Amino acid sequence: MKYCNQWAPLFLHSRLAIALGMALGTAFAAQNIAVASKPIVKTDRIIVKYRSGVISPSVMASPSAATAMATLQAERQTRIQAAGSQLGVSVKFLRGTGLGAQIWKLDRARSLTEVAAMASKIAKADSNVEYAEPDRLLHHMTVAPNDSRWAEQWDLQNSAAGINVLAAWDTSTGTGVNVAVIDTGYRPHADLAANVVNGYDMINDTVISNDGDGRDGDASDPGDATADGECEVGEPATNSSWHGTHVAGTIAAIANNGIGVAGIAPGAKIVPMRVLGKCGGYTSDIADAMIWASGGEVSGLPINTHPARVLNLSLGGGGTCDVTSQNAIDAARAHGAVVVVAAGNEMRNVSNSSPANCTGVIAVAAYGKTGSRAYYSNFGNLVDIAGPGGDQSTGDTDGTLSTLNDGLTSPVADSYAYYQGTSMATPHVAAVAALMISAKPTLTPDEVESLLKSSAKPFVASCVGCGAGMLDAYAAVQAAVGGTRPTDNNEVEPNNTIETANNVPSPRTMNGTVGLTSDTDYYKMSVPAGHTLVGKLTGLANNADYDLYLYNEYGTQVAKSILGERRVDIASVRNNSFRSAVYYARVVYHTGGTGANNGKYTLSFSW
Q1: Is 243 a known active-site residue?
Q2: Domain map of the chain by residue range?
Q3: In the chain, at which end, N or C, are there fewer CB atoms within 10 A of the end residue's CB?
């Protein structure tokens, strides 16, 4: 480290006067989003259109017309309820439509696949039914924002290496969540300032602060440029990094305002905490920043009126986790804050990088545009997840684009720049955590971490030591609201709908049980682009005959295998898209045993 008690930001960027590939020091609001309609996979209503003329014109003209209609409607109710009982729901008449159809309401929402099957049964059971179909819910679907440089934000796209933020915005943009950026402070960039709330300058040392005073309520960044040898003998001069502004823009740059870039959580607010200045920042200041930002009390400071649910620390140093940092992390977590930390840029095991090696943090490694681990990224068992950090060894624009300032030393004009580093990967994860908490505010820090990891995409390229997988904003938000649940190699009930499908994060064999003849089990996988999902279902009892179906992310059947008893069902589907895609597998009883002893099966997945 430069100094034993100092940390510096973890990033690499081409604007510095140091060579590309060297770290900068070895110590390390609700937006107007354009919308359109899209289908979802759940509904609690069904539409039934009956043929005309079921009751003769003469009866309709007679005094008994009302009785005849009531009798007919009661018969229809009986048939529809019979179909509903097979799904385990009760059904009642709701209303007629302008086109003469009838709307029937289920007592609770079920998957689109199940309601479609119920509609099919209704139509088959009554020759007077012209058609029956699910009354599908349509939700808003976010389209690409009009920010002028959106196309350059490869890291946010729906692609092999992108985090698929557009789909996540259908559910959450981060509204109501404050994210503390514990860094160099911020510049009031036109593409960011509206999403910044009051933070604090925590730097006590006036030499490091570079603003002429100690701690105060002004977290703006005056610049952190250094002269030759200013931090350590032999170190070259550096330009100002505006590091905190870049990190903050990745999290919450204003979306759909016609300029620049879009943040991942444009509905969230940034709480800027200035802890890094010339030559880095002190552990004690950073620890106080974590406590204050999360809503805790720090002597001599006012109460934070914008407590943060997420803390972003794109900084670090060497060595083991110190007691001061661990205590501050524990305090922040006790206040309900998720602590997200950069793994480091030294191409070494993260166990030697603090605070990424502290307990209770989400440690983030970095990958580049191809999905491979970035050449600089730290790695190891303590890494929790990987995010887009960029890898400019293949080109300057292969970094991540965000807000910046043009000044070489002091601030000048707003600008944008590509940076690379685990510093850049970390705010991607912090921002997705904000989306998740906005969607479900009761989430605990441990739940956020668990769901981030269980919803991560499989790696599309070599990323050894990069944690559970690649960050997937859409899958993480869906996991937060209950769209998927983590699981090990054993089936977890209930999983009888797409919404409660067991998550299968990597190729493996699942152990399941058909409990009853009406039982059905769903599993969810994220399959990389160009890969083929193969499901292999084996009933373990001699007379077992269970069938296997595969569905795409919208619940449309794409493959099936319905062989007889003692046969192994194999179904497959190739992901021909340019991105990872979600698929569901469903196990359905046909004949044979059920229950804990006789209903066991294995379902192996490969891709």
Answers
A1: yes
A2: 6-36+142-216+235-404+416-480, 41-136, 498-606
A3: N
